[in-house]
User: Fold this.
Amino acid sequence: MPLTRSQAQALAAAHPAVSLWWVVLGQVAVGGLTTLVAWLVFGDGVAKSVACGAFAVVLPAALFARGLTSRFARANPGMAVMSFFVWELVKIVMTIGVLFASHRLVEDLNWPAMLVGLVLTLKVYWLALAFKRKAKPVR
Assistant:
């Protein structure tokens, strides 16, 4: 049974969406903080590796968010679904590309440190879900 307009509005107010840009901002913050801690504790080499791991998450996520929030992606429901899959593919290819480029461009890349930066930055998705905005009371 379809929802009425007021029921749909009440449902949307009770379950607010998490902004993609807040997630990207959170990833930038966690990646930067992780890189800073790595630099303070272990030095430049490890910090560069951690930054590469964080960058391999942040850059593709920002492109994904930009693609999904574009006017073209919101044209109609079919385009929204297609856009999601296209931008998810771009995100995966971009992540692999950044990891490969890091391996080629950064001397003495510390793989465990890079993976720590990558994993901690990826975990922001779960934090965004855990700390999403509270629902507004329905009147």
Summary: The helical segments are 5-14, 20-42, 44-68, 77-105, 111-122, 124-130.
